[in-house]
Amino acid sequence: MSEIGVKSIEELYADIPEKYFLKRSLNLPNALSEFEVKKHIEALLSKNKTCADMPIFLGAGCWPHYVPAVVKEIVQRSEFLTSYTPYQAEISQGMLQALFEYQSMICELTAMEVANCSMYDWASALGEAVRMASRVTKRNEVLIPKIIHPERKATLQVYAEPAEINVKEVAYNRETGQLSLKDLEGKISEKTAAVYIENPSYLGFIETQAEEIGEIAHAHGALFIVGVDPTSLGILKPPGEYGADIVIGEAQPLGNPMNFGGPLLGIFACRDDQNMVRQMPGRIIGLTTTVDGGKQGFCMALQTREQHIRREKATSNICSNEALCAVASTVYMALLGSKGLRELGETIMYKANYAMHLLSKIDGVKAPVFKSPHFKEFTVNFDGAGLKVVNIHEALLQRGIHGGKDVSKEFPELGETALYCVTEIHSKREIELLAKTLEEIVAER
Q1: pTM of the full structure
Q2: Which of 26, 44, 73, 337 has the fewest CB atoms lying closer than 10 Å?
């Protein structure tokens, strides 16, 4: 205190008005021993239920997938854990190489040419992609599908508003869920910086018109942005092969567990266009050689952040980079390889379609709502059963099953509809248990 020139702790808070100070002692319990604290915390935690305690069919942006033990083992090594932000390249070669491998694998998976070493999540990647498209095209409008994750849409609007970018929705076909090409043609203009789609969509169906949508965007001078679930790319054509200029998505399914909604891991990749790469947010790790003997070396090739250049020139303010999550995804993808990712995608799609088949047999239940191919998520409508989704969900919880997400308020035109998720972790027995339990609930109405 003498060093900084204050005589008491209270002086440090002199700028806080007196009326905001607490005039009494805090009502705190007596101190506990370490053992007593441990028992108390365990008692609180025992009230929670996780996906290990019951079958869970909830996805909608954060999905239940199996994370191999070796992934957790590697990311917990101190070499990675303590150098998650590799500012000093000379002492972070291992981390830089892992991130370089991550970028390379994301490029291979998406069929794009350049990838950064991650964003915060899918939503922030979308916001950055739209702002990037606006900078590249010098336009101030973006077209998005009406069927989009509401939280991603809200995040996009937060990013778009200060950049004076207008966000417009494109209608969908009520029977198939597919984007309305007629509405897209009617809304796209010389002001449109980008057209964005999600494939698979938020409601689980695969956008079968993706190539046509990209052609419409390019015909009007706009960029084509595609959001993906990377677990689908083992079996679906990658966006780079149907004209995508920017690919974003959520890499949480690639080796990152569900953990109270985060941390997540945003994918961001684009074409190898100098104007686009220079406008890409985040960091790009490069491979080079040393001047003394040509040894292999890794470095941060681009990092156009406000910490490194003039604030007004920065393309992103992403700070605590999701590097450790990217390392987890790198390990996961390396473990599975291309064959393993294909088998993963096939397994998920098979199980999800088996679930839809069983649920569609229940009287008064429609699964899925849309007549389109689906990947791992699908909509289930209960209008025919005369039941509300919230009541269905409560009844499932009482029977030890966690159902899907209620989307009836997000898309009221779909009626009493829930979004269900099935991945590789769901056994045949669990899927059949869900169908049997739902049938019993409907029968009791």
Answers
A1: 0.89
A2: 26
Q: What is the pLDDT of residues 74-116, one digit of tens each?
A: 999 988 888 766 666 666 888 889 999 999 999 999 999 999 9
* pLDDT of 216 over the 60 cut: yes
Q: Is the peptide bond before 281 cis (omega within 30 degrees of 0)?
A: no
The set of long-range contacts for 246-250, using a CB threshold of 8 Å and a minimum separation of 24, is: 246/129, 246/132, 246/133, 246/194, 246/270, 246/271, 246/276, 247/110, 247/112, 248/119, 248/122, 248/125, 248/126, 248/129, 249/110, 249/122, 249/125, 250/61, 250/121, 250/122
69-333 has CATH 3.40.50.2300 classification: no
pLDDT, position 232: 97
Q: Which CATH architecture has domain 337-443?
A: Alpha-Beta Complex (3.90)
Domain boundaries defined on the chain: 9-40, 69-333, 337-443
**All residues at 6 or more sequence positions from 128 whose CB lies less than 8 Å from its CB, including other chains:** 119, 159, 268, 281, 282, 315, 316
pLDDT (average), residues 188-202: 97
User: What's the distance, Cα to Cα, between the start and end of the chain in Å?
Assistant: 70
Q: CA-to-CA distance for 424 and 431, rounded, in angstroms?
A: 11
